[in-house]
Amino acid sequence: MEVSKNQLHSFRNLLDNSRSIVLVPHKNTDGDAIGSVLGWRKVLTNKGYKVTGIVPDDVPSNLLWMEGADTIIVYGKNKSEGDSELNSADLLIFLDFNTIERCGEIATVARKLRIPKVMIDHHPYPDPELAELQFSQTSVSSTCELSCHIIEALGWKELLDLKAAECFYSGIITDTGSLSYNSSDPETYRIVGQLVEKGIDKEKIHKELFQSNSVNRMKLLGHVLCYNLRVMPDSESAYIFISHEELERFSYQPGDTEGFVNFPLAIKGIKVSVLFTEREKDKFVKISFRSRNNIPVNKYSERFFSGGGHLNAAGGEWHGTLEEALKRFKETFPGFLAQL
């Protein structure tokens, strides 16, 4: 992938005039978001910058092993420290999102900052007002992959050491289902190959990401697959729902439902899978979509659930009850498919 020379020149100028840099990912962080933050943190620290990662909410437990995870400021728990770092920064870099609302409460402060802002993201339809410099490329697998391309184009490959490679590799793997989707470009595998050459332990990373589950997470997964899985054969789709009461019953922790949305796709004949998670009782439902082939779940999510994302992987939300969200999906999705 070729990175614009003009963008690289602008980025170098911003970096040359900065000493303190703050990295911010989206709320409800995942492997690509945290991998991007900690990968860039290591590279920029190696370059001599003061770098701080600030996240809107808790880091999922299966990502806490990455170097630097213990230095991240959770804004929802420590606003004063977060505000202090934001207000003293020379440069703000947004990672893995492209509209200001996606960084939660941090958005209020970020809007007021009169410092340069950079966006590095792989989702479609970026807000042109988010940052004056935008590295936006929807063809890449992940923001971690895009970050590696930028670092390579900057001539900083030697700064991308083993620990940074672990972070970026984790982001690519988690955002592609271990290279099972959003990963058809040979460039993705070239980047992965370079990260492996840094000496990463793929077996160890896989274990940390996917085989370090709590007992409660496994019980929750078993419960929802047994009792909360519904199949809509006429639409070649299936969905899972989790109530707020069920989250509390199984002592939910951030990251516990990561990957749940992929399980219905293992059913023969199913091309679309949806996960509805009631985060606030009768108030807010988080929705995840996955699809096969050319079914554009991003367009469906954008139209009916205030969301968006990629062709085969998208997210949305519903401000209301879980029952209302399920009803809206069952009433609108068959018609949406029929129009394709």
- The CATH architecture of the largest domain can be given as Alpha-Beta Complex
Give average pLDDT, whole number: 97
How large is the count of helical segments? 12
Through-space gap between termini: 31 Å
The helix/strand order is HEHEEHEHEEHHHHHEEHEEHEEH
Q: Let me know the number of strands.
A: 12
Q: Could you explain how this protein is built, in words?
A:
Residues 21-172 form the DDH domain. This is Phosphoesterase RecJ domain-containing protein. The chain has 340 residues and is an alpha/beta fold. The chain has helices at residues 5-16, 31-46, 79-87, 106-112, 143-153, 162-175, 186-197, 202-210, 215-227, 244-249, 297-304, 322-338, and strands at 20-25, 50-55, 73-74, 91-95, 117-121, 133-136, 229-232, 237-242, 272-280, 284-291, 308-309, 313-319. It has a six-stranded parallel sheet with strand order 3-2-1-4-5-6, with helices on both faces. Helix 2 (31-46) runs antiparallel to helix 6 (162-175), helix 5 packs antiparallel against helix 6 (162-175) and helix 6 packs antiparallel against helix 7. The two termini are 31 Å apart. The mean pLDDT is 97.
